[in-house]
Design goal:
Elements: E1 9-12, E2 15-18, E3 21-22, H1 23-30, E4 34-38, H2 39-52, E5 58-63, H3 70-78, E6 82-85, H4 88-96, E7 104-106, H5 113-122, E8 126-129, H6 132-144, E9 149-156, E10 178-179, H7 180-190, E11 196-202, H8 212-231, E12 238-240, H9 257-271, E13 275-277, H10 281-284, E14 288-299, E15 305-309, H11 318-322, E16 328-330, E17 339-344, E18 353-360, E19 368-372, E20 393-397, E21 400-405, H12 410-414
This protein binds pyridoxal-5'-phosphate (PLP).
Amino acid sequence: MRTHVSAPYSQGKHGLACDGVALAAIAHDVGTPVFVYSAQAIRDAYTGIDRAFADYPHAIHYALKANSTLALLRLLRGLGSRADANSGGEIRVAFRAGFGPADIVFTGVGKTRDELEFAVAQDVGTINAESPGELDRIAAVAAAAGRTARVALRVNPDIDAKTHANISTGLRINKFGVALEDARAIYRDRRDVKGLRFTGVHVHIGSQITSAEPLQRAAHALAGIAIELRDDGVPLEHVDLGGGLGIPYEGQPMIAPSEYAAAVLPALRRCGLPVVLEPGRAIVGRSGALVSRVVDTKQNPDGRRFAVLDAGMTELMRPALYGSYHRIEPVEPRQAAVSQWDIVGPICESSDAFGRERDMPLLEVGDLVAVLDTGAYGAVMGSNYNRRLLSPEVLVDDGAWTVIRRRQTLDDVLALES
Ligand SMILES: Cc1ncc(COP(=O)(O)O)c(C=O)c1O
């Protein structure tokens, strides 16, 4: 097994760089914390998946939830991507980035009536419904608007994605979708309902999946139900395999897109329907680095060393939320012996730590460090806790860099308050 994207970050003459652009120069101009993304890494990741499925009719609907900054969406749209939106807000952002209604699959476990009315009025490509009740609400909204909504039902195949429990979605104990064995009757009972047209069937078993086997099983389950529905005379137009492809946060072996395609295509060929893919993390994850400055260092009597950064769980929540691992690199390494450091944030929560007992050269106040692989589920999960301000985002492309989101100001935040 091998990874599919060359790492965009490497040490150069001016310290750690993103595609040759020194992170220290960006931090100097924009301040810290700052998210930096490599446009080339995003292109490579997108085209890697697209090429792996080239021999089979497919559409990549990039999952906006991973990172929906407009400039990144425009970049992906330019590559031919479509969009997977998980809320009314994400649908609107997709439109602002230039995606059309037909480009969108609307997913999400708790769609409100307002969101459904909006999606139906906009005639989005497919609404992925999560329950029989939601199908009925879509039908009512569509019928009231004199429209027909294209829908796919999300099935829950009870497959262990072998990932972190908090990002596993395809087990019977999870809140997502309907049990596989119930799906056929749900389609059958509603196939002639006014306002609904069943165009697909959907599955998404989890995120950060690092072996092909669960994805292969999900594809088999999906193809199986699609074939049953065809036998029942439901004229489906696609199957939607969801997202979930992992990235090598710890440098571990990872499924390459070609292995992913090889694992799922035999099942898809069996049903013969075009496939929708909804990758998020695998497209943007490795492109990003969170660059932050050390604001304090200290050592406990037992020898434990801490480096406190100006970034914390308000910028990157994943370590606090799931105990997830991110590599942390000094931006300008010193010639000093390596020792172990706890790299922590400034927030008053003990879970606010990016890494514990990490081997690092001496860190001093003012040093820059980069938390790597933070392109997905990083900036999008940022918060204003402690009245902290959302960080700026910078896109590096072809040796130049651009601020694609400015730093939030306190006035931006307080504008909502009376
Ligand atoms: C329905 C659905 N599709 C796609 C994704 C994207 O997943 P990933 O970023 O792991 O590819 C998610 C994320 O959880 C999801 O819930």
